């Protein structure tokens, strides 16, 4: 599947839901995304819907994760 992730092309054969995408990104990016904000085609997907929300081919997805620091 090909999607637009944070403005860049991304391809994976392993993802079909928002939850699967985030699990894959956690491994690739070595970052915890359990508190992330996810938008699919400019619609916010609440955390309780990540597992049920299907990702379609060419979807535009934004994953925002907030980090504290100083």
Summarize the structure.
InterPro entries: Beta-grasp_dom_sf (IPR012675), Mopterin_synth/thiamin_S_b (IPR016155), Thi_S (IPR010035), ThiS/MoaD-like (IPR003749). By secondary structure, the chain is α+β, with helices and mostly antiparallel strands. Helices cover 17% and strands 29% of the residues.
What does this protein look like?
By secondary structure, the protein is an alpha+beta fold. It has one domain. The chain is built from one helix and five strands; from the N terminus they run ββαβββ. The protein has a five-stranded mixed sheet, with no helix packed on it. Strand 3 and strand 4 (43-45) form a beta hairpin. The longest helix has 12 residues, at 18-29. It starts with a strand and ends in a 6-residue tail after the last strand. The model has no long low-confidence stretch (mean pLDDT 95). It holds the Pfam family ThiS. This is Thiamine biosynthesis protein ThiS.
Give the SSE map.
Elements: E1 2-5, E2 8-11, H1 18-29, E3 37-40, E4 43-45, E5 60-64
Parallel strand pairs: 1-5
Antiparallel strand pairs: 1-2, 3-4, 3-5
Helix content: 10-25%
Number of helices: 1
SSE string = EEHEEE
What about the largest sheet?
5 strands, mixed
Quaternary organization:
single chain
Cα end-to-end separation: 38 Å
Strand fraction band? 25-35%
Q: What is the count of structural domains? A: 1
Characterize the overall form: globular
Radius of gyration, in Å, reads 12 Å
The strand count comes to 5
Q: Structural class, from secondary structure content?
A: alpha+beta
Contiguous uncertain segments of 5+ residues: none
């Amino acid at each position: 599947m090909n999607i637009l992730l944070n403005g860049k092309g991304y391809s994976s054969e392993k993802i079909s839901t928002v939850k699967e995408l985030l699990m894959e990104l956690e491994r690739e990016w070595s970052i915890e995304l359990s508190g992330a904000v996810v938008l699919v085609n400019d619609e916010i997907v609440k955390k309780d819907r990540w597992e049920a929300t299907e990702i379609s081919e060419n979807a535009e997805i934004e994953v925002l994760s907030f980090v504290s620091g100083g």
